[in-house]
Amino acid sequence: MKEDFKGHIHPLSQVIEELYQVFSKLGFVVAEGPELETEFYNFDALNIPADHPARDMQDTFWVKNKEDERLVMRTQTSPVQIRFMEKNEPPLRIIVPGKVFRNEATDATHETQFFQLEGLVVDKNISMANLKWTMTELFKGIFGEEVEILFRPSYFPFTEPSLEVFMKWKGKLLEMAGAGMVHPNVFKAAGLDAQKWKGFAFGLGIDRLVMLKYDIPDVRMLYSADLRLVNQF
Amino acid sequence: MLISYKTLQKFFDEPLPEAETLSELLTHHAFEVEKVTPIGDDFIFDIKVLPDRAHYALSHRGVSYEVAAILGLKRNGEARAKPAQADAENSSLGNLKIQISEADLCARYMIREIKNVTVTDSPAWLQEFLKSIDQRSINNIVDALNYIMFYVGQPLHAFDADKVEGELEIRLAKAGERITLLDDKEIVLNENALVIADKVGPLAIAGIKGGKRAEVNAHTKNILIEAASFQASNVRKTSTELNLRNESSKRFENAITPELAVIGLEKVTSEILILSPGAEVAETIDIYPNKAPQEKISINPKEINDTLGITIPREEIIKILEKLEIQIEDQEEKLLMTIPYERLDLKSAIDIPEEVGRLYGFSKIPSEALSKVAESKNLNKNFYYQNSIRKILGQAGFSEIYTPSIVNKGEIEIINPLASDKKSARSNLTDNLVKSLQLNLHNIELLGLEEIKIFEMGKVFTKNGEFTSLAIGVAHPAGFKGESVNEEIRKVREYLLSHLDTKIMTLCTTDDTGGLLMLEKEHIGVINKVDGIMELNLDKLIGDLPSPDLESELLSDTLGNRTSQSYSSISIYPFVLRDIAVFVTGEKGREEEVLEIIKKEAGALLVRARLFDVFTKINKETEETKTSYAYRLVFQSAERTLTDAEINKIMDKITTALNAKDQWSVR
């Protein structure tokens, strides 16, 4: 195994590995789930009922299915929160790197597929101050010590309070992640006692992280299979 | 949603901060102002109201509520309902008759007859206001309805009273029932659609769109104004099914309080009485059997602070909540809150910390470390081995690609594809890999490679479920001298499997022109079914491997060789190839010297130079030794397509410079 490294690993994989290095030191484990997901895990269990305007926040690819249950190409990695909590007792610390899908026209900053990193912490005493610390560790780990983290109000059906995480970096203010405290309905859907446990969750676009870190102008290039890009890394 | 700064000011007696400042404050404490556009002496805010605040904030009045809370201002009387005419309230002459047959779908129905209206153009200020928020002006009556919807958030509708026949009924449509809409489109309704009907048939689809039959037009004299409260999910369902989503349906589907109906009705009445002098209120009916309850929530301020991770004093929490027009009863431990009707998003104690936190300022939340735990020893096996395999393949000279999961052909079909050639989830990686090999083969000289070696790892979707697949491919350019692509696949396969503790067996033809990968008795992959490509079920391969070794070298290595810290852009213009070979007297070893001259003469357009042939020749007669160095040169510009003429010129320069050296000669 000592030969020269002649091939190239895609920058998405490299950044996912870096994220893993940051989080494994903090005691997080990697969790995973299907990309072809049920309507229940992708929406209902995450406090996004049918016929609710929150469904419009994510344009969804619906998939033909013989069974009664409707299937989607998962629009977020958040369903893995539910799947993991169903099988594991808190305290929990997980990250979920994975591909997600949105049914929207593509351009330089939008792709129908991209990678997300989901994070979930469940414990007895968890607050938004812990979330702030975790976000700071995350972005300092990837972008260096000169990073400052700011919160702004937002809305996600599966967190309350919800917020947008901004990063001050190289004189710019960049929207980096969505986050919040786990909504009790999500604990209930996963069979956990919402009185007993608290938690926070976050989700960020890994593609955007890669684009910022390496100054790549167009997200579509990441899926073009073009070695003119990959072999630079 | 577009909001006029000038119109927002109407809700306050004090002057508001400048538009930019106000927009910043809203973004930090309530919702994102995506853009501020100056129009005339006004500024238009484009505000992104998310579904939680859409109950109350999709109007100027709603935004004024947030402005008041953030700035600690009191709103003036504009925010409340004032009777438009002293004797108008509850005046019932008994002429209007309404029946609600679907009480669950219509919590409140107010209707008011206004007589002797003159339908004409709107005044300039109203036309300008509507234009500034991207709305069309129709006539003074319709414009008044729209204006008030954007002003206070209550959707309103008007019928021509003289065209309504008999009693009004709010009921579900009958199967196959039709309605012709204002835009002359005829629509067939299904039985879930709620309609406002008279004895002839539907006059409007509730909360969504009015019909042609009772349209208000230039001949209209008497009108019926509707201010109602229709059930959110029913409006959403019907408007989605009929593909009729508009500003009215948007507000109803987000659920608004029935209390807003009276505000909307009084405001629009006042407006119509101004816009149409001589008009008079005749009769009002308000069917509101179950008054909306005002939510009461009890919370201990400690719960708020525990969630936020900060200690805000009790008095300050009370002050913040009162700014949101929440009435507080300070009990011993807890605060008993009475929530404003509009705030349908505040349903329990869970919803309160965000309100306090955002107005206090989320940015003031400190950073507090998670409790220390040992670095996780619970390694995810798939994640570990996938990255290990990436490293092994990288060491074998393969580059990793990612390709789209949504493709033209596959076993799993998308119901609502984005494009006709993207209608399935991929069933294998090979199809995309074939294309990728071709793409990269085309650029092989630019890449400076002798062959293309790539792999992809990713989910594929089959009738039997999804799994992670691994595909590895090799492609050679024409005239490649060396082992066949199939032979190279054999080598990388053996290299990969030798680094993994696997029981995988290969069943192959002797010349490796095709084969299968077997795990126990299960077939988990194919080899060279397409020449130079193998694909296997990675989940099966990894499933059979031993648990990850925490001390493994694979784990400690970082991924990749990190040659680059930032990306250099790829030129979109074609590249040009030229070969040049030069004889240099003497033995081998002077390729660097040759290259240096080439680079110097070629300048910035030379993006790559590859030494592809070197040989030494001894002249038997003179015993002179000379060595030939052949370079392949790749030229490309980031700004334009290069012409043959300019490349020829550069090649001439290089040739001249090489020939100028003593005992060098270009072949």
Q: Layout of helices and strands, plus pairs?
A:
The complex is a heterodimer of chains A (233) and B (667).
Chain A: H1 11-24, E1 29-30, E2 36-38, H2 39-42, E3 62-63, E4 71-73, H3 79-87, E5 92-101, E6 113-123, H4 128-143, E7 148-153, E8 159-169, E9 172-182, H5 184-189, E10 198-205, H6 206-214, H7 227-230
Chain B: E1 2-4, H1 5-9, H2 19-29, E2 32-39, E3 42-48, H3 60-71, E4 98-100, E5 106-115, H4 124-132, H5 140-152, E6 156-160, E7 168-172, E8 178-180, E9 186-188, E10 194-197, E11 202-205, E12 209-210, E13 223-230, H6 232-241, H7 247-253, H8 260-275, E14 280-287, E15 296-299, H9 301-308, H10 314-323, E16 327-330, E17 335-338, H11 352-360, H12 381-395, E18 399-400, E19 406-407, E20 412-413, E21 424-425, H13 430-442, H14 444-447, E22 452-462, E23 465-475, H15 485-498, E24 505-508, E25 515-519, E26 522-527, E27 533-537, H16 538-543, H17 553-556, E28 576-585, H18 591-602, E29 606-618, E30 625-635, H19 644-660, E31 664-666
Helix pairs in contact in B: 4-5, 5-8, 6-7, 9-11, 18-19
Write up what this structure looks like.
The complex is a heterodimer of chains A (233) and B (667). Chain A has 7 helices and 10 strands. With 233 residues, chain A is α+β, with helices and mostly antiparallel strands. Chain A has a 7-stranded mixed sheet, sandwiched between helices. A 3-stranded antiparallel sheet of chain A has the order 2-4-3. In chain A, strand 7 (148-153) and strand 8 (159-169) form a beta hairpin. In chain A, helix 1 crosses helix 6. The two termini of chain A are 20 Å apart. The relative contact order of chain A is 0.18. Chain B is of the alpha+beta class and 667 residues long. In chain B, helix 18 packs across helix 19. Chain B contains 19 helices and 31 strands. In chain B, the strands form 8 sheets. In chain B, strands 18-22-23-27-26-25-24 form a 7-stranded mixed sheet. In chain B, strands 4-7-10-11-12 form a 5-stranded mixed sheet. In chain B, 29% of the residues lie in helices and 26% in strands. Chain B is elongated. Classes of the chains: A alpha+beta (233), B alpha+beta (667). At the A-B interface, helix 1, strand 1, strand 3, strand 5 and strand 6 of A face helix 2, helix 6, helix 9, helix 11 and helix 12 of B.
